[in-house]
Amino acid sequence: MKSRTVVARVDELPPGSMTVVPVGKFGVGVYNIDGTYSAIANYCPHRGGPMCVGQLTGETTAGAAPYSQVFSRQNEFIKCPWHGWEFELASGQAAAANVRVRTYEVVVEDGDVILLGA
Ligand code: FES
Prior knowledge:
The chain is built from no helices and 9 strands. It is an all-beta fold. The strands form 2 sheets. The protein has a 6-stranded antiparallel sheet, with no helix packed on it. The chain has a 3-stranded antiparallel sheet with strand order 5-6-7, with no helix packed on it. A hairpin with a 6-residue loop joins strand 5 (55-62) and strand 6 (69-79). The termini are close together.
């Protein structure tokens, strides 16, 4: 059975907020992005940077017009503060490399936000 850590009451972690839970060796960041919860290890798989100090960002892809870009999925990615690698919060997958940061499941039960497996 997965371990369970109560992170906060739902109203203590509103959309747009995050908290780092002191579990494991480096902690786990729990994010509420527009009502969807994600949890990632506070440890970058590149060189071990403190991932959750990084800023949230979105995805930049090529646009339809030549040399144009489209910015989308705002706040669904996090940029590591050390070297700027970007990772998708939901999957932990790096945007530009074949590595991922560890992710965890988050559930809401009886008004509590609960981190599983950390
Ligand atoms: S340690 Fe995170 S990008 Fe290098």
